Amino acid sequence: MPAFSTNPKRRRDNTRSKFKVMGNHDEFLSRIKKTLYYGKLPMTERFSLPVSELASELFSEVKNGHSLDYLHLDEAATLSRNACVSPCSLVLALLYLERLKTCNPEYLRTVASSELFLVSMMVASKFLNDDGEEDEVFNDEWAASAGISVKDINQIEREFLQAIDWEVFVSEQAFWKQLCKVETNVALQEGKRRGWFSYTDLDQLLETVDLAALAQVVVV
User: Distance between CA atoms of 91 and 127, rounded to whole angstroms?
Assistant: First the structure.
């Protein structure tokens, strides 16, 4: 099981990194600043706290009924910061998670939550970033961020790709649909925590959640 390192992944310059995204980049940035509770975007890619909390919850859920293993919040936050992981990668990783639930549930029962989070983030980031140019993501950098050997991370990656049958392509339509689900979950999570919903929360929720169910969330 990875013991995520406190050392950030090496970067080749000190400029603000771009949040990688499928589709319109400016539209995405404007959207997530509100819906994913970023406020001011960080200098390097990482999850906001609500997104880290959601990732911890969703990657722990797959072990329910099978193991007491779960993904700690600090593990999710640390890896996203050290490996400069964008929320786009989480969107893809959650789609991979859904595929695995269908095609290989046995893999999900046996893999550690922290390893599953690490490798799905890495594969998703490669899908978004690996273009053969200077900012290419290397396994040794991910290994350093996770505090494990390159040999181990290569093995974890091979097992993941075999489990998902190398089906890592994600269409733009699937990406935006999954992003909407993430935004809805974050809005519900934050509104329930506060006891009230912001305008941005409501704007998101009214498109996807039944009003009666929404009122019940606030009352509870």
Answer: 12
Same domain, 186 and 140: no
- pLDDT level of residue 163 (50, 70, 90 thresholds): very high
Length of the chain counted residue by residue: 220
State which residues form the domain around 197: 174-219
* Other Cβ atoms closer than 10 A to 108: 17
Domain of 127: which CATH number?
1.10.472.10
Same domain, 163 and 183: no
Cα end-to-end distance, the chain, whole Å:
37
Q: Within this chain, do residues 213 and 162 fall inside the same structural domain, yes or no?
A: no
7 SS3 class: coil
**147-151, long-range: CB within 8 Å, 24+ apart, which pairs?**
147/2, 147/3, 147/4, 147/5, 148/2, 148/3
Q: Is residue 9 part of a domain?
A: no
The average confidence (pLDDT) of the chain is 79
Asked if residue 214 and residue 146 are part of one domain, the reply reads no
Amino acid at position 194, single letter: R
* pTM, rounded to two decimals: 0.78
Are residues 166 and 78 part of one domain?
yes
CA 89 from centroid of its chain's CA atoms: 5
SS3 67: coil
Distance CA 54, CA 51 (A): 5
Residue 56 token pair: 């911890």
Judge whether residue 119 has pLDDT over 90.
yes
Sequence-separated (6 or more) residues with CB below 8 Å from residue 158:
none
Instruction: Say whether both 159 and 67 belong to one domain.
Output: yes
